[in-house]
Amino acid sequence: MKTLLLISLSFVGISLQAQEAYEIASAMPRELPVKHTHFTLSYNEGNELPSWAAYALTPEMARASGTIKEKYAEDPLVSTGSSSVKDYRDAGFVMGQLVPTEDMLLDLKTAPETYLMSNIVPHKVGFNKYLWTGLANLAREWAKEGNTLYIAAGPVLADGPFGSFGENKVAIPLRYYKVIMDLNGERAIGFIFRVNTSSGTLTSYAVPVDEVEKATGIDFFINVQDDMEQRLESTLDLKQWNFEALKQ
Prior knowledge:
The protein is an alpha+beta fold. It is 19% helix and 25% strand. A 7-stranded antiparallel beta sheet has the order 3-4-5-8-11-12-13, with helices on both faces. A two-stranded antiparallel sheet has the order 1-2.
């Protein structure tokens, strides 16, 4: 059993207190951990994509509103160099965000970090517009219900090798995932989507977090106590999640 108040996560110069970083996933081999103000990611240089990006979504963050200028830029914290906006020109993909700008509007000074290319992945238009954005909107509604949600998302890089595009050879993943844990509510849920999908109810893509871990090779929520992590990740009860929240 982990003693959360004493454990810290340290890799490549990054140190986070465990009790403040329940969202953190495992460090991946040959990947660069990058810590931004309100989210952390693990950057895979070979694919020019993050394998995961993770953050805590509080009720206050979910309720925040505001406007910032959409300005995509290369991430200066990725020492090997991130993908660029130029890569996506005429590539046939939209630039999808793993950490949505709308989840970061409580802090308008750092919300622009969500437009850094380390947080960007290639999406088909329909998938991004309906399923990916729909799930992000739903997660905000769940957070508004009162509990902090710990969220990680990314492409399933274990499916590779992939085709690529752009000067930096950005990989074209086949599947994407999102995992969400609510410690106070003692519930967790995962989702796996194929990127060429744009229809269907979100419940039809829901899986236990354990299933996402098997698909990706990533250990999620590593700072949660072992017994609780195993219990929440191995089960899925759709009745614990209000999938009608956006209709209310």
